[in-house]
Design a protein that fits this description.
Number of strands of chain A: 0
Oligomer: heterodimer
Structural class of chain A: mainly alpha
Number of strands of chain B: 9
Radius of gyration of chain B: 25 Å
Number of domains of chain B: 2
Order of helices and strands of chain B: HHHEEHHEHHEHHEHHEEHHEHEH
Strand content of chain A: under 5%
Distance between the termini of chain A: 16 Å
Distance between the termini of chain B: 82 Å
Number of domains of chain A: 2
Number of helices of chain B: 15
Largest sheet of chain B: 5 strands, parallel
Strand order of the largest sheet of chain B: 4-3-9-7-8
Structural class of chain B: alpha/beta
Helix content of chain A: 55-70%
């Protein structure tokens, strides 16, 4: 089910809120789990079983690990089995086709006949819940988190519907207390409403508008440089508004039922270095990669060179986590390269920290912008062709001028201006939800109605991060 | 901030959330006298398809959605001249159909990773040509150029018609020629006419996907030349002497209608165009004949002015006028890629006595054709 749909907003959510507040507290986690399974299973009902399996495995693995008197060997072995089990599932569903394609390519390169690719449907959100369950078991093993007391608490944690499909990635120890006790106040609910409405409006009014431009330009046969930059700018807007909207909605919905889910975005396009960008973009993923990959690889304990290599490797894997395709790996390697360079030569400040502040932001944004090319392009070849177009080395075919005529229409130019205004504002949805004032209230409700009206005129448009 | 402010926001939000389904329920039960649609969820097995259908039904039947949609479309048009996903507003009251721009401006349909037609159009055309050849019937393939390729200047100022704008169709036609299939590239004539003789009548309507009356007449003249070239001196039977009269038609443009723009008539008033109406010797408007030696398969480009107002003034009638013989035709809006051949397969007697099949379709159908490019076996 999609947050920005008629069925979610006018049927699922009101029914859930009604039941939630009608039931005594002890039944509420169970209700949320059940609701999450309906929400998740709406797309493909049978994938709920897969998530249940993963949940049960990690719940019992953590119990074995935390059991009094468990030997170090048993603890370690259980941890390894739990992790391998999850990674095998993730590997099969997410990387199965990728592996086959590469094997096929290799065979053909060696002059052998390729085989027929066995198609596998990717269960949405599998990357997110796999990371969450693994982090839980690892935290219990490390003693950083208590094992869940009840299976219902843990299933509620894994399946918590607001952030289930596209994050933020939540660690058990950050919300463990909330399964036993949550505060339900008008203030918290109202801040959740603000986040929900702003996220909803960002997705429907801004992200989808930018998506129209980006889709047209990235599909163009060979755009001229100006159109290519316009399309790339639109994609940068689309992915930011889309993904941060999902996070805002997730946090907002969480607050409506008393949960406090951590922040995931903090004006990333205003960063002055690539390191800062990753401290502001998909913050829950960055901290996950740091704690569960970078530190285990040695972090910065073995000198500057090793630290740089570790950073690069972590981002490479981060790229592969985003999608089973080589362009994603390239995207990860590119960001890893910048992070490593900044760590090695600029002590985490930007390599361009000598520039005035606005220029630092502009340079950082420029390099981030370039990284969206492989992220968005359909294939390796398409990414290279697009990069050539950006720098004026493309063919700039006349028929692509028609696309230019389309994407520079008054409507698209106005939407781009609005997006630039919103992105460059320091006050983001998260900050706006802190205080609900009468003037804010006066435009919040009309904004929601406007978003609803727009939603009804748009075709099915799921969040981009569903595919990861 | 005050507790009253939080409370107001929470209750306003919840009021919207609850009011919509409650109102919908009351409407369905009390006004429409039906059972609640939402209960449909429990009437079928919750499979992927059933859940999708249920969700769609719920949204399609939503009264609130029905009220909000036109308001939003109107607002979008007033504020930003936006026609939505399906169309692009051009300069001077022109509008362009989105799939036409996508077909022309995006990669060749065969090079697409996603969204390419399930069946290869070239294979299907070749298969159809072979089936006709076994009956001693020849085939002429005539893709109809899209408006953005012929009249691009109101989409992007300074852009002139050029074959490079319609490069995908050239590529496709070359491929058909390579397979020995006879094709007619209308774009050469259309593009030249619009590019060189700017004072000549326009070939396309401003806010419609289709051609003007002049466009239909011009296309008929070019197709007739090609048909004469293909069939040689043997005259076509039955011979008729048609006459033609000009008539002015006010056509309500289809692009704002497809965009579901409310009050479209205000933003895009009906456009007057000169149509060329064809009459037979008895003064009756042109009519098809099953005994004709020519069969035309077509889409709305063949329907416009022909069965629409003023009737007998479309491509088919003007082609008959040029060739002095009636035609048999099968026309299906948007369905020239597959549906017309399915109709033909259901009425194989229409092929009796035919010498030539003229297959016209909008060039964008190569990628977006309704029902794709399915191979259809004609009864032997």
């Amino acid at each position: 089910m999609v947050f920005t749909s008629n069925i979610f907003i006018f049927y699922f959510l009101p029914l859930l809120l009604l039941l939630y507040y009608a039931l005594p507290f002890r039944y509420r986690n169970g209700l949320l789990t059940l609701a999450a399974y309906v929400f998740y299973g709406w797309d493909r009902p049978w994938f709920v079983l897969l998530m249940m399996y993963s949940t049960v495995c990690h719940y019992y693995a953590a119990r074995i690990i935390a059991a009094p008197g468990a030997s170090a060997r048993l603890r370690k072995g259980t941890l390894a089995v739990a992790i391998i089990n999850s990674l095998l599932l993730l590997g099969y569903f997410k990387y199965g086709v990728f592996a086959q394609e590469n094997a096929n390519g290799l065979l053909q390169l060696l002059g052998q006949q390729g085989f027929r690719i066995y198609q596998i449907t990717l269960p949405i959100g599998i990357s997110f819940y796999t990371f969450q369950t693994i982090s839980y078991t690892v935290d219990v093993y490390r003693g950083a988190a208590p094992p869940a007391q009840r299976l219902t608490d843990f299933t509620c944690f894994v399946a918590l519907y607001p952030h289930l499909i596209a994050g933020p990635i939540v660690r058990y120890n950050t919300i463990a207390d909330q399964f036993g006790h949550r505060q339900h106040t008008y203030e918290r609910f109202a801040s959740g409403v603000v986040l929900f409405i702003l996220g909803f409006a960002k997705k429907i009014l801004l992200a989808n508008a930018m998506g129209r431009i980006a889709d047209a330009v990235f599909a163009a046969e060979s755009p001229d440089a100006l159109t290519a930059w316009w399309g790339l700018l639109a994609y940068a807007g689309q992915i930011y508004f889309d993904f941060s909207a999902y996070s805002d909605i997730a946090v907002g919905l969480g607050r409506m039922v008393g949960f406090e889910i951590p922040r995931n975005f903090n004006s990333p396009y205003l960063s002055r270095s690539m390191t800062e960008f990753w401290q502001r973009w998909h913050m829950s993923l960055s901290s996950f990669l740091r704690d569960y990959l970078y530190f285990p690889l040695g972090g910065n304990r073995y000198g500057a060179r090793r630290s740089m290599l570790n950073l690069w490797l972590v981002m490479l894997i981060g790229g592969l986590w985003h999608g089973a395709a080589w362009p994603f790996v390239l995207w990860g390697a590119y960001h890893g390269m910048w992070l490593a360079l900044e760590r090695g030569f600029a002590k985490r400040d930007g390599l361009w920290s000598f520039l005035p502040r606005p220029l630092q932001m502009a340079v950082t944004f420029f390099f981030v912008l370039l990284s969206w090319v492989p992220f968005r392009a359909e294939s390796w070849t398409a990414a290279v062709a697009y990069l050539r177009a950006l720098f004026g080395f493309g063919a700039a075919l006349p028929n692509s001028q028609l696309v230019r005529g389309e994407v520079f229409s008054l409507h698209h130019v106005m939407m781009m201006a609005i997006c630039v205004f919103v992105v460059t504002r320091k006050t983001q949805a998260w900050d706006m939800a802190r205080n609900v004032s009468w003037p804010k209230l006066a435009w919040m409700v009309p904004l929601f109605v406007l978003g609803l009206a727009a939603m009804y005129t748009q075709s099915f448009n799921p969040f981009l991060y569903f595919q990861f | 901030m005050s507790r009253a402010c939080y409370k107001t926001l929470v209750f306003a939000f919840l009021a919207i959330l609850f009011a919509v389904p409650v109102f919908q329920g009351i409407w369905e039960k009390a006004v429409e006298g039906e059972s609640l649609r939402v209960l449909g969820l429990f009437k079928k097995v919750p499979s992927d398809a059933n859940l999708r259908a249920f969700e769609k039904d719920l949204e399609d039947s939503s009264k609130v959605a029905g009220w909000l949609r036109p308001m939003h479309r109107q607002l979008r048009w007033w504020l930003m001249r936006d026609l939505g996903d399906k169309a692009v507003a051009g300069a001077d009251g022109w509008a362009y159909y989105g799939p036409n721009i996508r077909y022309l401006g995006e990669r060749y349909f065969r090079d697409l990773k996603f969204g390419k037609p399930a069946d290869d159009p070239a294979e299907t055309v070749a298969d159809f040509a072979q089936q006709l050849a076994r009956r001693n019937i020849r085939l002429l393939v005539v893709p109809i150029p899209s408006k953005p390729a012929v009249a691009p200047e109101r989409l992007r100022r300074g852009l002139l018609p050029s074959p490079a704008l319609s490069v995908h169709t050239r590529r496709f036609l070359d491929e058909l020629r390579g397979r020995g299939i006879e094709v007619l590239d209308l774009y050469w004539a259309f593009g030249q006419q619009q590019r060189r003789w700017r004072d000549r009548p326009r070939l396309y309507l401003a806010a419609d996907t289709h051609w003007t009356g002049d466009g239909a007449r011009f296309a008929a003249a070019i197709v007739a030349m090609s048909v004469r070239g293909m069939l040689g001196p043997t005259p076509l039977e039955p011979k008729r002497n048609y006459r033609r009269e000009t008539v002015t038609v006010a056509r309500r443009p289809d692009i704002p209608r497809m965009s579901r723009l409310p009050g479209e008539a205000t933003a895009f008033p009906p456009e007057n165009t000169t149509a060329y109406r064809v009459f037979d010797e008895e003064g009756a408007p042109y009519a098809d004949s099953d005994d004709a030696q020519l069969l035309l398969l077509g889409d709305s480009f063949s329907r416009i002015y022909q069965t629409d107002e003023p009737e007998a003034a479309g491509l088919i009638a003007n082609l008959a006028y040029e060739l002095h013989t009636p035609l048999t035709s099968i026309v299906n809006d948007g369905g020239a890629s597959t549906l017309v051949r399915q109709e033909l397969a259901r009425s194989p007697e229409l092929l009796k006595g035919k010498r030539l099949v003229i297959w016209t379709f909008a060039e964008r159908d190569l990628r977006f054709g309704m029902k794709g490019w399915e191979k259809i076996a004609l009864e032997e």
